[in-house]
Design a protein that fits this description.
This protein is of the alpha/beta class. It is built from 15 helices and 13 strands.
Length: 388
């Protein structure tokens, strides 16, 4: 095993591997550390060419020790699609969409849950729970079913119907909660001790971020080991953004990439934009966003446990945080579909009006290599569209 320890992302307290952990004693997320010198001896960029096109091709920088504990549905290595027609309309030369809808359960949440459920199996956990606005619930239900583990899901009562059907069909237990994902998280905590389940909430355990970081590895590999200049990423809890930044540092230590980093742009909805408010106010942490409302269920996260990490990454990368309206999101769904044939989730579609704002404000150039992340399939959000 290449895992050396887990460290607190805030106070840097160290923890030995091989045990179930939630957060640090200070309440902040734990991050997995690896012996990257050992990884470099075992794995090279050329060896990746011999491996299956799933996230497990990066096996040496993932935390599962024993292969028999891996729970997989073929997740990862999603397409990086050149958006040529859209680029021409916007006056850009190099625009790409990383389309995470090709994952099992049709969203990027499959990455994190694949690794987290695999680690749950390895650590002997049997009952898992999560609060979710939709797609994380679908992913946990599917991977828990695959692993033969019990799953308990806390979801807002207005969760998209597609997610509700997926969870119920997979056999997970559901509790619907009035409110948003933070209300679901509070209900989970109230019940956790009496019911004995392990909390897989975003960044309240160390392993979902390890699955999400593989988006960064894939992006580097798919772009010829030269990272893009700008990444626009829809940001609720921010696990993917944090994970990719971690991946970039690991790859540089392995000698796979140089020190160039993309400008990271966190995209939120105007109806729930805690990171945008904190970024613009120069704050290092974000206050809880009051009365969150948006059609993009995955962006309706009024407070992120790792807000301080997200804001630090945005500033270190010379990036930004941008909020867009629900009307702009709906327009962008149509634009992405009619220009590139991609029916994006509203969270992913939000990246397009954010990019348009960056172009208007001259914060990106014609020659920048730009990647937008579509995090899920728009087919999960058919309730947003009127039908004849």
């Amino acid at each position: 095993m290449n895992v050396t320890e887990l460290t607190c992302s805030k106070c840097h307290l160290r923890y030995p591997p091989g045990r179930p952990y939630q957060v640090c004693q200070c309440g902040k997320p734990l991050l997995v550390q690896y012996d990257l010198d050992e990884v470099a001896r075992a794995l090279t960029r050329n060896r990746l060419l011999e491996r299956p096109a799933t996230l497990w091709r990066y096996r040496e920088v993932l935390p599962v020790e024993r292969d028999e504990n891996i729970v997989t549905l073929g997740e990862g290595f999603t397409p990086l699609v050149p958006a040529r027609r859209l680029a021409q309309k916007l006056g850009l030369r190099h625009l790409y969409i990383k389309d995470e809808s090709f994952n099992p359960t049709d969203s990027f949440k499959a990455r994190g849950m694949a690794v987290a459920v695999s680690m749950a199996r390895e650590l002997g956990l049997t009952k898992l729970a999560v609060p979710s606005a939709g797609n994380a619930a679908s992913a946990l239900a599917a991977y828990a079913a695959r692993a033969g583990l019990e799953a308990v899901i806390f979801m807002p009562r207005d969760v998209p119907q597609a997610n509700l059907v997926e969870v119920r069909t997979s056999g997970a237990r559901i509790e619907l909660v009035d409110g948003v994902i933070t209300d679901c998280a509070r209900r989970l905590v109230e019940r956790q001790q009496s019911e004995g389940y392990f909390d897989l909430s975003t960044l309240k355990e160390p392993y979902r971020v390890e699955g999400k970081k593989t988006m960064g590895y894939e992006l580097a590999e798919q772009m010829g080991w030269r990272l893009p200049d700008v990444i626009l990423y829809p940001t609720g809890g921010g696990t993917g953004l944090i994970g990719m930044w971690k991946a970039f540092d690991e790859m540089e230590a392995l000698g796979w990439i140089d020190a160039h980093r993309p400008r990271m742009v966190a995209v939120q909805s105007e109806g729930c934009a805690p990171i945008v408010r904190a970024f613009e106010a120069g704050q290092s942490e974000a206050e809880e966003f009051p009365h969150p409302r948006t059609i993009a269920a995955g962006l309706r996260v009024p407070r992120a446990i790792a807000d301080f990490l997200i804001l630090d990454i945005l500033r270190r990368s010379k990036g930004r945080a941008v909020a867009v309206s629900d009307d702009a999101i709906m327009r962008a769904i149509g634009e992405l579909a009619s220009s590139e044939g991609l029916l994006a989730a509203p969270e992913g579609a939000a990246c397009l009006p954010a990019l348009e704002r960056l172009i208007d404000e001259a914060e990106v150039s014609r020659d920048d290599r730009i990647v937008l992340f579509n995090t899920a399939s728009g087919l999960k959000y058919l309730h947003l569209f009127s039908t004849p």
